[in-house]
Design goal:
Rossmann fold; seven-stranded mixed β-sheet; 7 strands; 36% helix; alpha/beta; globular
């Protein structure tokens, strides 16, 4: 589906950003209590955004936080909530990046069921930045999970883009022990 085929009301839209499984507590293993706690914290942030008027959510569909958030929105829809999910794909074959069978299943199910916007036909160095820019430009809120990384990250890049664009930000910042702690504000303090 082309971007022009999807109507997005920016004021009622929230996008997600976060790290991939390899950079999450316990490698993103949702069977471990600490990771289940993080997922619950994310779900609470999404429910809060919905209660504040967000009816559309955009996920970048990478493994880790993007898929966790997208699946959470899907679960809300399945339970009768009147919200929408849009899958923002950095390039056409992003699916090939999914390493676990669970992630491959969730990715295929969500992209088959919900509208997708693909920002690049093939992979190139800038496709993830374009995808992140698309999400920020079409949203008024950002929910992000962020941990400090020496080399920076696409998540930090997105959080800074969102701060510059004036988005209402709900950042779940992981400490050195990967414990979640809420931070709400601009990226100057991250």
């Amino acid at each position: 589906m082309a971007e022009s085929d999807i109507f997005i009301c920016r004021e009622k839209t929230c996008c997600f950003s976060g790290h991939r499984n390899r950079d999450l507590p316990f490698g993103g293993d949702r069977t471990v209590l600490g990771m289940r706690n993080l997922v619950s914290t994310i779900q609470l942030a999404i429910e809060t955004a919905a209660s504040q008027g967000c009816d559309t959510f955009i996920s970048g569909m990478a493994d880790g936080i993007d898929l966790i958030c997208a699946e959470s929105v899907h679960d809300m829809i399945e339970h009768g909530r009147r919200v929408k999910l849009i899958c923002a794909l950095p390039y056409k074959d992003q699916f090939k990046e999914m390493t676990s069978s669970r992630d491959r299943y969730i990715y295929r199910m969500l992209t088959a069921k919900y509208p997708c916007v693909t920002v690049s036909v093939g992979y190139d160095r800038g496709c993830y930045r374009l995808r992140n820019s698309f999400m920020v430009e079409h949203s008024s809120k950002l929910i992000a999970v962020l941990r400090h990384k020496e080399t920076g990250s696409g998540t930090l890049q997105t959080v800074r883009m969102a701060a510059k664009a004036g988005l209402d930000m709900h950042v779940i910042k992981l400490d050195e022990k990967h414990n979640p702690a809420f931070f709400i504000g601009n990226a100057d303090h991250i």
